[in-house]
Structures are given as C-alpha cells and as structure tokens.
Task: structure prediction
Amino acid sequence: MLEIESLKMKFTGMDLDITAEIPAGITGLFGVSGSGKTTTLNCIAGLVRPQQGRIQLDDKVMYAQDKGIWLDPERRRIGYVFQDDRLFPHMSVEKNILYGAKFVPSRGSQIMVADIVDVLALDHLIDRMPSTLSGGERQRVSLARALATSPDLLLLDEPTASLDIGMRGAVLNYLRRVWEEFHIPMIFVSHLIAEVMALADTCLVISHGRVVAYGPPREVLYNAQVFPIASTESINNWIEGRIARHHLITGLTEVSVDATHALFVPSFVSKQPGDKVWVLLPAEDIIVSLFEQTGISARNNIRAVVKEIHMVKDSALMYADMGTSVVVQLSRMAIQELDIKVGQNVYLIFKSSSLTVLDG
Amino acid sequence: MGSLEIQAITLSIKVAVCSTILVLPIAVGIALLLSRARSAVRLPLDILVTLPLVLPPVVPGYMLLILLSKKGFIGGPLYNIAGIEIMFTWVAVVIASAIISLPLMVRTMEVAFRGVDNRLEWASRSLGASKSKTFFYITLPMAYKGIIAGALVGFTRGLAEFGATIVVAGNIPGKTQTIPLALFSAIETGQEAIALRLILVSVSLAVVVLVAYSLLVNQRT
Result:
C-alpha cells in the first residue's frame, strides 16, 4: 500500500495537491498531459522533492515534511521505467540490466535476472548496445533493468507512448506477465483510458494537479468529471482473443474471444491460428440493435447481455457482456428511445474495418 | 644536440606531465561544479578559473611569486617550518604551468560534463546508485573523451608555458629552463642552430599531441 498524504508542490504552470491510498496491484494513473502525472511519479520516486506532505510505502516513510524525513531515490527501492527509456548508451543490454542489481542489498524475495530475461524475451538481445534496439525492445530492457533491482514498487511513465500502436499490445502483455510472475505493485501513467481499462485493477484520475476520481477503471470512466477527459480520444475496448482461422476468400481473420464468441477482423496473417492477439474496438463504433439483423453488411453481429448503463452528460455508456465485457458509447437519446434495460439481450453490430488487431 | 637542450626538453616533458597529473582531479572537480552549479555560484567561479587564461601570464606569475616566496603566505611557513624553498626550482615551474593550463582543461571538461544527460544520472539514482557511484559509473565514463581531451590541451599548454614560469622559476639552464625559456635564451644570444632545433622539437611535440587529440575527438563510439 502506497499512502500519499497532502502532497503539495507548486511551480510554474503546476499546482499539485495529491492525497491517495494506492493498494498493491496494477494502478493506472490517468490524466491529460500537464495534469501532474509525471510530477507525482517523480515525487514518489524521490527525483523531485515536494514542498509539503507525506509519502509512505508499506511501513517505510519516504517523505514526511513535518518530521524532516526525505529518502534519496537510491534508498527507496522504487523501480522507475521512464517514458524516454533512459538506457545507458555506453553499456550493453546485459550491463544495463545488471546495473542496479549490484547496488541493492540482497534480501529474501530477490528476483532472478534470468527469470526477467526469460519473461521479457530479451535473451537474443543481451549482447547488443542500446543504440541498435527498436523502441519496443528498449522499453523492455528499461523494464528489465528496473525489475532487476527487486523493487518494492514499479513506476511506469507512459510506457507505450513512444511506441507505434502495433507494439503497444505487446508491452501491455509484458506488463501483465510481470505482475503475474513477480507480484511487484505497479503504477503506470497513461493518457489513454483504454490502456488503463485493459491493464489496471485500480485507476487514479488526476486533473489540474488534483485527484478527481479513484476506483476500478470501468467505474471511473463514467464519472462525470472523468468522462469528458477520457472521451477526447476514442474510448477503445481492448479485447483479448486468439486467432481461430484465416478466411482467405473473404480476406478476414476470425478471432475467438471465448468458446462461443468470435470477431471478424481484417486479415492478420502474420499470426497463426492459436496465437494470442489484442483487438481494439472503439466504443463509439458499436451499433446496438434489439433484434438480430440479417441482410446487413457489417460482419460482426454479436449477441450480448446488458450489464450496466450509465448516463454521462449527453452520452450513455453501456457495459455489455459478449464473452468479454465491452463498453459501448451511445447517445443518451438512443438509450431512451430503445428503452434498453439492464439484463436485456441486445445485438452489437460493428464493421470488421472498425477493428484493429495488435500483437498479443 | 647539447646537454642543456636535452635537459630543457626532458624538463619540459616532466613539467607538463606533472602539472597535468596535478591539475587533472582539480579540473574535473571544478568542471563538474561549473556544469551543475546555479548561476550565482557559477559566475564567480568561472571568472576566477578563467582569469589566468585571459591575463598576461606575467600577472599570475607575479601573484605566485608573492604567495610562494620565502616571505609569502605559502612559501613563508614552508620555509620557516620545513626549510623548503619552492621559488626557482622545477616545482615552481610545475605550479606555474598548472595555474596556466587549469582554465583550458576546465573549459574542455565542462563542455563534456554538460553533454552528459542528467536524466541518465537520475535513472542511475533510481536504480540504487548513490551520487558518487552515479558519477563514477555514468557521468565519468560518458564524459571520458572530454576529460582526456582536456588533459591533452592542458599538457600542450604546459609545454608552451613561458610568462609565469620565468617570473617564479627564472631561467636557470639545467634547472628551471624549459624549451620555451631555452629558445628565448638562444634567440637572445643569437644561437640560431639551437633555436631552430628547439623550434623543431616544440612543433613535433605539439603535432603529436594534437593528432592524438583529433583522433580521440573524431573517434566513433
């Protein structure tokens, strides 16, 4: 548990005042750029000294202004994966990864470097120099380097921001694997609500230096203060699936979501049947029908059960279960006219061209 | 080549080597401070370090004379307590050339330290390295070219030092007479052959060091 109490910091263009209790797990720190996300991370890591407040990780006080306590970053055991990976250019990948490990005092729950290399698939890169790596590879090495110090908490600042969309799914999957394998609590910053929804258990929303919402991402999304921020970019559903088969004649690929639900996506032949993929489905591209439609061009026509409906400003967010939970963004008027109720069966219709497939 | 010429050449090299070694850690420290300090600290320090470079070398020479003479601040106690006399010895030559080459070394190294991205230093701290370990593992290796380049520049300046040296160490053949001083004497006394040989030696030494400098600076990593 990370406790942040009245963390205050004022400088040009920034007025931060954060109070939050962040449980162990994956926490998404969401907000627009300039809202104070990175400054908050820097304060937690000890790279920036706030003017007031208290920061405590489990029973270790990192900062308490009233008691004059301030731990230098090297004494905090907090791993930091920077947005601009910050690999040491004069060291090989291996030396980068081992760099921090030589400074930390050994203790019981040490993470083995070999396991990190294995989980992040870095084996073949170990002798390379950072300048020869791709963006995604650099980000993985940076993550490995932070993990090798066996941190008590891992901070990730926009880990996918510098990557093209195709690499983002892979990095999110690596992060999830890191949590499953090593159980290090993570706080990751993102300005994309969809990423937070795909990865985080808990979401903390910051706006103008203040916490405006906190809770499970799906609940935070329909918070009246959060929705306008979140919906400035399209709200994407990140759906996990496996390639079922490639339909060569139609040029479509079938991705199964579970035993009974499948999506038709644009041909994605770089993956074999059985391979894991992410499918991005924009919430506003989904049409809701009360009846099964025939004679329609859209290739995806899936029966779903309505789980929740939330009105936010002029929009409505509907959560539906189609083998996986998806969020549908509709107009308030549409919900009212169709008289959609929780528990009702509906059909979700969307074109395969609305879907983007990413490496899983 | 006469024995006095050879003595001048060996003394020059000895002095340049010693003064470079003496100044190196000091220059690294000052350069690091200048590259990181706030402007309120930086400006006075910068001016103080740069003065010997822009003043006529005779001025720092005379200041050293005041400090190091038997009645000076430093020279006085040294002479009274330990009986050591610095003036007009080869040690005085080293000190004079150290003061003169310091600003050049600091300037070159400061640029090198500025070139090290301090975000990498913060990354190192977050990985558990203290400030000093970060300096030795990250800052220094990343700035090493500039540091060696600074040392080479300082070395050539040490070889060339004349004005401050003649004030604090005189021009004693076989004792404090370096190449530039020997050259000066040769010209004054009209010994053209000796002057020509010393010029050749000076140019050759400088060319060797400058080639090394250029190779280092243009080397790919």
Notes: The domain at 236-359 of chain A is CATH 2.40.50.100 (OB fold (Dihydrolipoamide Acetyltransferase, E2P)). The mean pLDDT of chain A is 89. The radius of gyration of chain A is 22 Å. The longest strand of chain A covers residues 300-312.
